[in-house]
Structures
1.
Amino acid sequence: MASDKVTACCQTLIEKNLTISFAESASAGKMCYEFSTVLNSGKILIGGIVCYHSSMKEDLLHIPWGTIEQYSAESAEVTKLMAQNFYRYVGSDICVGLTGLTTPGGSESEAKPVGTIFIHIIFGEKQIAKRYEFKGSPESIINQAIDVVADLILMEI
């Protein structure tokens, strides 16, 4: 069941006849799934791609070789490229890219602890890039990130 924020976001997208797509890493498809559970989501949801491993980001989303090594798979730079490159292939009005750290074992550091999430949203010519640090379990971190995405979209449309 989608959160109230996701439901409100979807209802507004439906009212405004806007479509959405997702390029996900840390959320592993949950964001696309949550948006799919709202009544009439078929009117707005184009689809999504899950590129969890670096090889998928490079091979399917054409993240230039060396970019992930330079910035890490969980970075603003990679998230931006994921959103931009997926947006080019998908005919949606809005495209959301999301990467981050929900568990130890990635590129976490003092400056980028577990709970750090990067979001990049494209609205045609306008783009929004955000970095957040959430607390809680991996599932809680993802749920908080999904609600933030819904809020960011609602503020823009």
2.
Amino acid sequence: MNSGPPTTRATFAIGDERAARRVVDLLNESLDDDHAAVAAFERPDGCWEVCLHFAGAPDQGAIRALVRLAAGDGAAKAVAFGTVEAKDWVAASLEDLAPVPAGRFVVHGRHDRALIAANKIGIEIEAALAFGTGHHGTTRGCLLLLDHVLRAHAPRRVLDLGSGTGVLAIAAAKALRRKVLASDIDPVSVRVARDNARLNGVGNLVEAIPASGFSAPRFASRAPFDLVLANILANPLRQLATPMAAHLAPSALVVLSGLLPHQAQGVIASYRARGLKLRRQLVIDGWSSLLMQRL
């Protein structure tokens, strides 16, 4: 992959995990996810490094103000802005990340490929211009709920809505050995999902398409879905409740994530009004993941 144009990056360190989670949550809620992405990683010295990557030049004063609100003056003053090649920061981050277990699934980088146990399903994710390495609480929550679902069900028609790097679609395809439809509004993410599917040996099973919501004709031809995986954000999930319900099979299962705990009840209510019932809820690293079922 070519390095492409440079992107703007902001970084700062926080010595407290709780503070790091708080500032990441606030930044994710406050920034447009189409133009900025936020992640936090524990460093070898025990401190947490928070990284923001922007599609365009950010308002540095506004970013410092958000950090100050979440983590205080010291963190705000420590924010350093710079530019970096579009792919290098992902590669550097992945090299330092340990494999992430989630039930039968393990998300890992190429450097840990040989460490995956034979009785686990490895999902290899490498450097790319899209987010979703499996280290975020929302992704792990979705994988755990997917593992829970597959212990009792064998869905035939599966959709990964807002697929990002394709982690969830790949997990479902590898576990079920069936075709999975994956969609994302970002064409770069679609390309990355296709690449990752091929890397994981399920390129023939994961069909990744660019789409906003359920507007693409491919949804109608593949519906009704027995299982939908949607790791997005609270507001889009509420807006998608009606079109999603229209594309579900009877007794279909839906995994929803990308929610802060205080947002979960609002999302549950939106889907309950469309005939779905909450079956299970997980909270991991300050993020809620929901399993709902159509009645």
3.
Amino acid sequence: MIRFQSLFDFYIKSSIHVAFSVYALVRMTHFMFGLPYDEPMALFAFFGTIVGYNFVKYDALARAKKRMMRKELKLIALISFFSFLGVGFYFFKLQLVTQLMGVGVLILTMLYTLPFFPNRKNARNWAGVKIYIVALCWVGVTLLLPVVNAHLSLGTDFFIKCIQRFILIFNLILVFEIIDLANDDPHLKTVPQQIGVKQTKILGLLLLLPFYFLEFLKNNFVEKQLVVNLIMVVMLSLFIGFANQRRSKYYTSFWVESVPIIWWLLVVLL
């Protein structure tokens, strides 16, 4: 049991789970637009997520030479290295325009992590900005890049899906911010820090209304998608409603980050 627990923790800490969430959303984009499976795009997003998230989480620790890296961190670094090779391999299989946009997302990720300007903190520590940068990166990787790589026109349905995808990620991050409220630096000015936990939950629940009803405005309206989205609204409402600082770390790091995977599976199954 202890061995399984260690493996499970490593699976989460090494960002493999969140990478599967990104992969699921890319596959969902293919499904929604009736596109065939684009392996280079899906795996580029998967491996890129591992590299990006581990870079964000462990960059400062890796650069600090005050203590030796534990065995676990060395394994995470090894996985990140091979994922970096995977990113490079699939990057050159993408369309040129997708490559250019992918570089743009990379720059945004680096801006989020590294201080580009003298005497300024990185974007991760800019007051109130973190949630928007992360949500935009997810929308860019899981929706914009797959559509552009398939040479699809960016019509009304695409922009509606962008709004829905942004709301989904925004709400998932709100749950993280509620859980981490006690540990977050007050200068970050996260949403719960600015308006309180109760108002944050109300905001998240209100955002689920456009998330659901925007479906009716799509040109390619599919009734079954309403059922899937209703299940998603109920699930997200429960995650938001029951979020508090006493929740286990798995509440967000596993269950909340599983929401995109569940959404994709529901779309495929129904």
4.
Amino acid sequence: MLPLAQPTIHAIHGFIGAGKTTFARQLETQLPALRLNSDEWMVQLYGPDPPEEVFRPGIVRVNVLMRQLAERALALGLHVVLDDGFWTRASRDDLRRWAADLGVPLRLYALILPEAEARRRVRERNAQPGSLYIAPETYDLFWQGFEPLQQGEPHEPVP
């Protein structure tokens, strides 16, 4: 059996509708890797449209569980794809610290899409069974907390 390349965290940055999950699925197959997607977990645990009072604590729990599973996969020599957005500088800094503490390389990919196209994709996705529903008002609310990558943040742009 051939040895695996050093297990790596592949994290995907981008806002809702940017194509993160499509890209994450490609990476999952190409590497191969364990892909972890917070939206999919939220739908499985809390349904496609959980109210805010369920969503906020639920997403925290999901992220803790995903990180634990990622650590186990990395310890077993597997690549991990984190399909979660990393919308804030603080979340990206935390991601970098976590990878450094684990002694694991991190590759951060950035997907950027014009807003009109992202909103169109969200409308399409909302119509798909099993998708996490994002209302237009929720999109607007989440956009207020989105922080694009800043100069000096290492990343790989995805066309």
